[in-house]
């Protein structure tokens, strides 16, 4: 992820920080833009983190974040398959909280939240929601049509674009 961020931000005046976000000391009104890629679904209580990020932005600063889609985090009970999934059983969608997944042979703890919860948490932290996207696949990114069709069945990620008011 660090390597990818460095590549994507090459030529921009930017700073990449690698540390535990829960322990991070947010500076006040420091940044025009904060990016968070696939981090927030690992955090149990987002209120303080979102407040810290909002405060670290200058007025009208933008926060762009992606996280695993709540449909995915609601499917973990049946997620331990050895083959590529062809269907997803959404279960306990409205029961927020810890979900355990096996990823690359290891147990990983993530925290399921509904789309509504992400929206309300963002709004309550003082963000204006500018945009929300789901990671709809683009056919030209796939060499195999069957893999594209399989990926069209469910969104893997959600992406929010938020602005500090």
Helix content: 10-25%
Instruction: Measure the end-to-end span.
Output: 29 Å
**Any idea how many domains?**
1
Average predicted confidence as pLDDT: 90
Structural class: alpha+beta
Query: What gross morphology would you assign?
Result: globular
Uncertain stretches of 5 or more adjacent residues:
none
Report the CATH superfamily: Vaccinia Virus protein VP39
Calculate Rg over CA atoms: 17 Å
CATH topology: Rossmann fold
The percent range for strand residues is 25-35%
Second-tier CATH architecture: 3-Layer(aba) Sandwich
Largest sheet features: 4 strands, mixed
Key descriptive features of the protein:
165 residues, alpha+beta, Rossmann fold, two-stranded antiparallel ribbon, globular
Task: Explain how this protein is built.
By secondary structure, the chain is of the alpha+beta class. The chain has one domain (2-68, 114-164): Vaccinia Virus protein VP39 (Rossmann fold, 3-Layer(aba) Sandwich), CATH 3.40.50. Helices cover 23% and strands 30% of the residues. It has 5 helices and 6 strands, in the order H-E-H-E-H-E-E-H-E-H-E. Helix 2 (47-56) links the parallel strand 1 (31-37) and strand 2. The model has no long low-confidence stretch (mean pLDDT 90).
């Amino acid at each position: 992820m660090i390597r990818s961020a460095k590549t994507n931000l090459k030529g921009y005046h930017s700073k990449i920080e690698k540390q535990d976000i829960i322990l991070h000391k947010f500076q006040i009104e420091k940044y025009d833009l904060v990016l968070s890629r696939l981090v927030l679904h690992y955090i149990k209580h987002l209120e303080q983190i979102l407040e810290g990020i909002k405060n670290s932005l200058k007025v009208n600063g933008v926060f762009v974040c992606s996280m695993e889609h709540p449909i995915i985090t609601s499917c973990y009970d049946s997620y331990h398959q050895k083959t590529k999934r062809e269907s997803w059983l959404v279960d306990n969608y409205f029961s927020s909280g810890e979900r355990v997944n096996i990823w690359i042979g290891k147990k990983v703890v993530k925290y399921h939240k509904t789309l509504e919860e992400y929206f309300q948490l963002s709004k309550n932290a003082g963000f204006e929601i500018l945009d929300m996207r789901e990671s709809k696949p683009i056919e030209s990114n796939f060499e195999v049509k069957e893999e594209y069709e399989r990926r069209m069945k469910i969104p893997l990620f959600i992406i929010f674009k938020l602005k500090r008011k």
